[in-house]
Each structure stands twice: as structure tokens, then as C-alpha cells.
Amino acid sequence: PLEKMTAFRAMIAEVPVNDDPKYVLAKSRDYYWYSPILKDQLDAMTGQIVVQPRTEAEVITVAAACAKLRIPLTLRGGGTGNYGQCVPMEGGVVMEMTKLDRIIEITPGRVVCEAGARIEKVEHAVAETGQMLSMFPSTKRLATMAGFVSGGSGGIGSLKNGMLRDGTNITYVRLVTVEEEPRVIELRGQEILKVQHAYGTNGIITALDYGLTPAVDYLQVVALFDGYDVALSASVEAETRGIESFLLTVCERRFSRFYKKFADIFPPTHDAIFAMVAPSSLNAYKTLVADHGGTVVLVKTDAEMDAAGLPPVWECGWNHTTLQALKVEPGIWTYLQVAYEPPLDFALCARQLERYGEEIYWHHETARMGGEVHFFALPIVRWTSKDRMYEIIAELEAEGCAIYDPHAITIEDGGMKAIDTTQIDFKREADPHGLMNPGKTRGWSAEMAR
Ligand code: FAD
Known about the structure:
21 strands; six-stranded antiparallel sheet; eight-stranded antiparallel sheet; 31% helix; 22% strand; binds flavin-adenine dinucleotide; Vanillyl-alcohol Oxidase, Chain A, domain 3; alpha+beta; Uridine Diphospho-n-acetylenolpyruvylglucosamine Reductase, domain 2; Uridine Diphospho-n-acetylenolpyruvylglucosamine Reductase, domain 3
């Protein structure tokens, strides 16, 4: 209601706001439109006002006002999430975190920064100290550090350094609670699991740390193979041969029509591996490719890629692939996220490729989890209907694959299926009125129903 908003604005008077409906609508969106199912569900949803705090003190002012007036609060970083993670399902306040973007400290192995710092900005700052981020999403230009930590799971670099929640990739999170008198809570070590991948439902992150490694000038390498099965098997063997790589994406030949800038390099007659290989492993990698009957057709540094007008190879992997397909054939494609139990069963992948024909195009990604390399597929799927999508999901699950459903709006349905009680317990503490990003956790709805 109008009076509530008037009261809210009076309570946060010093904090910049924007209530132009066009702006508010734009900031109530993310990349959920990859999914026609989510598009139907979320297109009409919008917040009432966008607030843009510049300091943690201003974040506290907004949190207190939302708690006192019981206004829903949805946090937003770069808005590059894929599952409507920052779409306000019950209206209210959208808090845009991108003005909170200071880099606080860089030490060997760690960077501490404010929540809304764009990932690429942090990457440039740590590069000056001879270091690099342990991993990043291909959206790093727009995406923020806290948005990645709260909405993401891993990305380019995960093959070397594990998923976000593994090891020491994140060891510190500072957050503000949404209460009448907000508190600042600091989580350390394993405690960060209380908020990692919680979609901003249980506390407003204002600062965090992130793992760095000594910088390696990974080479961007494209190799071509005579069949998808040999390309897959080469990527598995890369690990047993101890090849140091930051990214290995196995991509079937039908993707070549989407990768227009690679037209001379990746023809529709061959399957490919797009990789980032440490210079010290290049010779071993070339031998591996040759042993699988393949050919290395491109080796370039980042600067050389740029000079040649080529996009980085990581734009041919993970979820950037879906974007590439949608750019060329809008409205035709959507996607799925599939996880395989190691060791990878090549026969299973071949059966899946064969079974769906023109309906599904495959690429497989590698990431380290608990020290071991796991395979994921983010296949693009020709959209027909919701029923068909869930039929495919059921078929893949029946074969032992796990599906991280990108057509679902709650954390649980999209990810691990089970309710994460640690995160719900923490939500009781950090968001006792249940105002943060309502509708995104089944665990909290169950809690309320009790
Ligand atoms: P947003 O979309 O703004 O927010 C994500 C979630 O975090 C929301 O729920 C939001 O409420 C919450 N949030 C934002 N700020 C805060 C805060 N300060 N405190 C608490 N919660 C907060 N993801 C991956 O994990 N790996 C990938 O490789 C990857 N590749 C992608 C490629 C493409 C082309 C696209 C479109 C997406 C990809 N994603 C990937 C998803 C997304 O880009 C990442 O998760 C990204 O890092 C999100 O950052 P953001 O700042 O845009 O977050």
C-alpha cells in the first residue's frame, strides 16, 4: 500500500532510491527467461521501489525499515542469475547492491571486498598483485561477488579449484540481519555454508572474502576430434595425465552454428574441446589430443585472442553456451543441468546423444568436487512443452543422473532437492519475519505451515 511506501521512504530518507516503474521492472528481472516455464511464472512480477545503499550503515537503515513495516526485501547484484533468484515474488523493495563495491584488502591467497563489487573489477585489482580468482562465471563483467556466492555454485576455474563451497574458496562473510534492530554477523570457515547458495533469503551480505591463487597465464586452446566419444575420453584422461587446466569443455559439432566467431576454427564436421591449459602442460595436452586422433587448431594467450577478434574460449562453455544458442535462434532453445556420478559412463552419454537426436545438443563440463573430477552437462533442449521437459528429466534421472532443475523457482527444487536445515535455522535468526526474497525456499514455507 501507498502509505507503507511513504513511511518507508521517510525512514530511509538519506538512501538513494529509484521508483521509475521502468527502472524498477528492469531491476526486478534476471536471466530466468532462458526457461519458458519460469518466464510464464515470473514475467508479471515486479518490486515497488529500488534502493541503492552506498554503505553498510545505509543497508542497516533499509533493513530496519523493512522489518518495522514488514515489507518484502529482495537483494540484487548484477541480476545475471538464471532462476529468477532476484525476482521479487511479493513486490516490495529491491535492494541493488552495486554501489557497495570497495575492495578492502588483498593479501597472498585472499581478497576481501564489499558485496556489490563486480567480479571483473576484483579480478583486475588482484591481477596487479600477481594473483587470480579461484574461479569466475562467464558473466563476470556484470555479476557481483556476493551475487555469485549467493546464487552461483562454480564456474570457470572449478576444474582446478573446486566448487564455491569447497575448501577455502570462501572463508568469511559479513552480513546484516533483517530485524527492527539489525545486527551485523560475521561467519567464518565452514559457517559460510549457512548462506552460500541461499539466494539472499537469510541475511544481507555486505562484505566477503574470496580465494586467490598465483596468476597463471592459461592458454586458450581449441582441439578438434572425429567423434564426441573420443573428445569425452580425452577430457577424462586429461586428469589422469596430470594436465593442469582451468577449463575443459567438450562440445559437440552441432554447436558450431552458434559459435560464429569460431567459424574458421570449429567446423560442423568435428567435435571440440575448448580448454584453458597452463603453459607448462601444453605439450602434454597436445600429446593427449594426438593420442585420441585429434588436432589442436588454436593456441592463444588472452591478448592474442583479443587481437584476433575472438571471444575467450570460456564463452563456449558452461551456461554461456545457452546464451549463444539463444542469440542465433531465439525462442527455440532452453536448457537442462545434468550431473553424472564418476567415473563417467561414455556409453550412457552416447545413448543420451543418440536418443534425443535434434531435440537436445550436448556439451559436457568438468569440475572438481571433493578433490575428484565430476562431469556435468548443460545440454540445450528444443522447447516444446513443460510436460515434455519433465518427461526428459524423468528419463535422465532414471539413468542415474542428477538434475539441477533450471525451470524451478525454489532453492530446493533447483538444487539438492532436500531442505537445507542449516540455512533455514539461520534464516530464523537473520530474517525472523520471513521478508527476504519470499517464495524462494520450500524449507521456509514448510516452517511457516507448522
Ligand atoms: P544476482 O543475479 O543479482 O543475484 C543472485 C542471487 O544472490 C539472488 O538470489 C540475490 O537475491 C542474491 N544476492 C545478491 N546480492 C546479495 C547480497 N549482497 N547478499 C545476499 N544475497 C545476495 N553461475 C555459476 O555458478 N557458474 C557459472 O559458470 C555461471 N555461468 C553463467 C553464464 C550465463 C551466461 C548466465 C546468464 C548466468 C551464469 N551463472 C553462472 C549464473 C550467474 O551468473 C551467477 O550466479 C552470478 O555470479 C550471479 O551474480 P549476480 O551479481 O548477477 O547475482
